């Protein structure tokens, strides 16, 4: 059985089809043309033109089977390959990286799922639902330190290549940043094969490629997980919410998407999760990475019950996000008349300007006539 078929579940016919579809002249980006100052292979013409397929329905099912999976079913599973290498990697975290989800695939073009059990990073080949690599970590001084790596991402790869792939997957998948993907040095003179290899290995997450396995780019952001607390909130699991907070998880922790648990609770139909979080000490004015408060998100979602509970719990009506917009700006633009009335009754300032807009100007631009009348000074 060929390496590609064993690893990716594709027949030789399918491989040939992909190779024909990907006969593109992949361009090079010289060191002066990119922020990393190294020569890179531009994979974008390829990843934007082909799609993954499998003749094995089980593998196709596996590839998109991770929705709602918190990863705990993979905890404690070791890779078939027990090769262990030391690693000298660290990534910035926000005080603590909590157990949970770092990346889950939602299309067949996503080739990896990544979870964290509090000690080990777990890398799962999505089509196979098989653990390929785990990495032991520790946390210190706002850094996740990768101490050693067990397993391989590809067959017979060097330790340097393993480290480079792990670093790439964490930054590109878990942190959502575009960085060069490691490519096998032996494919450097055959860029078409290198592109096909990159798509099979990384799917549509590899935009640029590099053939230097010692190249380890640094991230711009901070590594965060969708914690088990966030997932319990999304599932309205009251017992698990309480258990996670009582075991020490920060109730105001931001997830990988930059949202706190209270923001996640707004997606729930009932206010039960939100009420439980507030009872456990959640800050009603906690901010997202963009500076939005839960009240602002409740306004955007037109969730009146959640909105009222936040007001009762001390949410600030005139709080501004990082761009200067308030909850009233959002309500006025989106036409949420009832919410506008409540905000005004609670002292919302209709004169606040953000990027040359007031709530009035946004309501007028959206032709929300009743709201325009409420906001018009007489």
From TrEMBL:
SMART domains: ANK. SUPFAM superfamilies: Ankyrin repeat (SSF48403). It comes from the Bacteria. Keywords: ANK repeat, Repeat. Pfam families: Ank_2. ANK repeats lie at residues 257-289, 290-322, 323-355. This is Ankyrin repeat protein.
């Amino acid at each position: 059985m060929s390496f590609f078929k064993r690893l990716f579940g594709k027949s030789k016919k399918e491989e040939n089809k992909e190779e024909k579809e990907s006969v593109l002249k992949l361009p090079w980006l010289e060191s002066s043309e990119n922020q990393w100052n190294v020569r890179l292979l531009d994979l974008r013409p390829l990843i934007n033109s082909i799609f993954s397929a499998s003749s094995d329905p089980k593998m196709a099912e596996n590839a998109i089977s991770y929705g709602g999976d918190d990863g705990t079913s993979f905890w404690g599973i070791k890779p078939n390959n027990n090769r262990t290498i030391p690693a000298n990697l660290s990534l910035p975290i926000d005080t603590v990286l909590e157990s949970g989800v770092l990346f889950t695939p939602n299309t067949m073009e996503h080739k990896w799922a990544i979870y964290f059990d509090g000690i080990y990073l777990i890398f799962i080949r999505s089509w196979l639902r098989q653990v390929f690599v785990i990495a032991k970590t520790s946390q210190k001084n706002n850094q996740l330190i990768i101490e050693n790596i067990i397993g391989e991402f590809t067959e017979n790869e060097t330790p340097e290549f393993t480290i480079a792939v792990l670093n790439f997957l964490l930054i590109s998948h878990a942190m959502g940043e575009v960085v060069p993907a490691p490519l096998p040095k032996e494919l450097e003179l055959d860029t078409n094969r290198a592109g096909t290899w990159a798509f099979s290995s990384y799917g549509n997450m590899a935009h640029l490629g590099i053939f230097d396995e010692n190249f380890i780019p640094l991230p711009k952001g901070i590594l965060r997980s969708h914690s088990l607390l966030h997932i319990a909130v999304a599932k309205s699991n009251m017992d698990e919410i309480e258990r996670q907070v009582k075991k020490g998880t920060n109730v105001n922790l931001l997830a990988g998407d930059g949202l706190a648990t209270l923001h996640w609770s707004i997606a729930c139909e009932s206010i039960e999760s939100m009420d439980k979080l507030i009872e456990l000490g959640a800050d009603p004015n906690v901010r997202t990475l963009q500076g939005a408060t839960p009240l602002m998100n409740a306004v955007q979602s037109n969730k009146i019950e959640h909105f009222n509970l936040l007001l009762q719990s001390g949410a600030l009506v005139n709080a501004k996000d990082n761009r200067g917009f308030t909850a009233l700006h959002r309500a006025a633009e989106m036409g949420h008349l009832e919410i506008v009335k409540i905000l005004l009754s609670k002292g919302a300032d209709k004169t606040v300007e953000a990027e040359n807009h007031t709530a009035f100007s946004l309501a007028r631009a959206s032709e929300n006539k009743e709201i325009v009348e409420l906001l018009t000074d007489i």
